Amino acid sequence: MIKKIYLFILLLAFFSFQAKSQGIRFYWNNLNESSNRLQGKLMGENYYISSLANSNYFLQKDWVDATIELVDGDIFDNVKVRYLAFGDELIAYNDKIRSLYIVDKNIVKQFTIQAISNNGDIKDQKFIKLFYDRIAGGDRYFEELYSGTRSLLAFHHIEEVKVSPFTDKMGVMRDSEFRLNVTYYIYSTNNIFLKLQKKKRSFMKILPGHKKEIRKIFHQNKIILLDENSMVQAFTLLDKADLFN
Q1: Which of 64, 155, 58, 74 is closest to 107 using CA atoms?
Q2: What pLDDT does residue 169 have?
Q3: C-alpha angle 116/78/76, rounded to 5°?
Q4: Is the confidence at residue 18, as pLDDT, over 70?
Q5: Which residue of 83, 127, 145, 225 is 20 to 30 Å from 113, comparing CA positions?
């Protein structure tokens, strides 16, 4: 009798632990045929979105389709995601259980989002996970704008800034607002990050031995660094001219 009671208690504790675990983690089972490990599944912790977060924390205004590649090679297509720029996390929607979760960054290698540009065109935005070894370092998601001898990266981050009190569109009085900032980097495979600004002299500061060539390339191609596209154009031409070696 005592053994039966003891066994019942053990089973009850086991199922109780399983129930709690399911409330914390999600596992998505659409693996490749080559997958045979539990760690290969897409997983993460619950994410509860507030109206404030929905309006201010994300790079995208709405959910978009993405392809997520894990470090072990598993690939998940057509996943609904939004990039949480206020915290550097990837949030996914699991339509099977109608819930949101933070994708475990430890298992992600990269993801590609189908973004809608300002003119309505659909373009791919590729984000890669890299270890950032500076202040507030750790694994970060960077958008890869160009990949060649060096990579041009963009780190999207939303910051809360104190402002004069105002009433938001919901009628709530606030004294802060959320602003999107983008920091650009030249990245080399030996994990060196060099900050880059949308200025010609920023390129010349990073490549001081090629100031003449940089001026010539900018002049011949009439490059004015007004936006991200012009930065990519300049970066591409400088790489083709072999100035990064």
Answers
A1: 74
A2: 76
A3: 130
A4: no
A5: 225
Whether residue 202 contacts residue 141, with contact meaning beta carbons closer than 8 Å, is answered with: no
Distance of CA 133 to the CA centre of its chain: 17
Structure confidence by residue, pLDDT tens digits, 124-172: 999 999 999 888 789 999 999 999 999 999 999 999 999 888 888 777 8
What whole-number distance in Å separates Cα of residue 81 and Cα of residue 93? 6
Separation CA 64–CA 4 (nearest Å):
53
> What DSSP element (H or E) covers 173?
strand 173-188
Residue 39, pLDDT score: 41
> And the tokens for 33?
């045929």
Q: Give the model's confidence band at 175: pLDDT under 50 very low, under 70 low, under 90 confident, else very high.
A: confident
Q: Which amino acid does the sequence have at 10?
A: L
3-state secondary structure of 73: coil
- Token pair 């890299």 in the structure block, residue: 130
CA gap 75, 37 in Å, rounded: 14
